[in-house]
Design a protein that fits this description.
There is one protein chain. This protein has one helix at 28-35; strands at residues 3-8, 13-18, 49-51. It is mainly beta. It has a 3-stranded antiparallel beta sheet, covered by helices on one side. It is globular. It starts with a strand and ends in a 36-residue tail after the last strand.
Length: 87
């Protein structure tokens, strides 16, 4: 399931949540419900912003595997694609 990051301009908080690609979160209350958090003093109808991110997806076959500490960066280089000349 993809991971998304949202930002609330009113309280300055960012939260990462996992949800399906067809799910739309528009308010602080919806985000807190999804994250199973108390909204605190921020009104639940406060608009939030979806931040750009990788939208990381874990398949069921890889979700429970620990990372290989000896493996290098994914993508073949420190910049993710190997085109930066490092490594």
């Amino acid at each position: 399931m993809p991971t998304y990051e949202y930002f609330c301009p009113d309280n300055g908080q960012s939260l990462e949540v996992m949800h399906g690609m067809t799910t739309t979160l528009n308010t602080w209350g919806e985000l807190c419900d999804q994250a199973d958090l108390d909204p605190g003093d921020t009104p639940t109808d406060t608009p939030i912003e979806k931040l750009l991110g990788t939208g990381m997806v874990l398949s069921n076959s890889r979700a429970n595997l620990a990372p290989d500490p000896g493996a290098g960066p994914m993508g073949g280089g420190c910049c993710g694609g190997g085109g930066c000349g490092c490594g």
